[in-house]
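Service request form, structural biology core

Requester: graduate student, group of Dr. S.
Request type: structure prediction, single chain
Budget code: on file
Notes: please return the result as structure tokens.

Sequence provided:
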Amino acid sequence: MTITIRRATKNDMPIVFKMMNDLAATLKQNAPSITLEDLYRDGGFDGDLSYFFALLAEDSKVKDSKGLPTAIGFTLCSHSYCWDGRAIYMRNLLVNDSHRATGVGKMLFNAVLRYAKQTGVNRIELHVCKTNPAQKFYEKMGAINAAEKEGHVYYRLYKDVINKFHA
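Core staff response, request fulfilled:
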């Protein structure tokens, strides 16, 4: 098994979209409400503001119909900013069932750490479902449960609330 990690391009967005849906199914969550077109628009591929970046893990021994390496895992991240300065928000990380427990998740996680170090990031944020068994993996990688250790509470405002706002 020869695994490579690379930054996803515009051409990879169908793969990223599929893996996002696979992750939702794995976690028994609702499918993402975004579309493939949203990924194209929000990825900054046409010179616009980039809201996210994705990394793909590929196995050179697993080929697609064109003979190219197949994506076997991914992580979806975005840049953020906080009172610690530059931050990365790692939203999704998935390794296909066929490659779990082989070190691919650690390779993806380490690729984000490497990128963070190279770009002067001071903090990586993760929000993980209580039922996600990957919590143990993240803790093993050095992540802390900020809700327990720092008393943080995670809030979210959805589109319906945002749309009710009148300036």
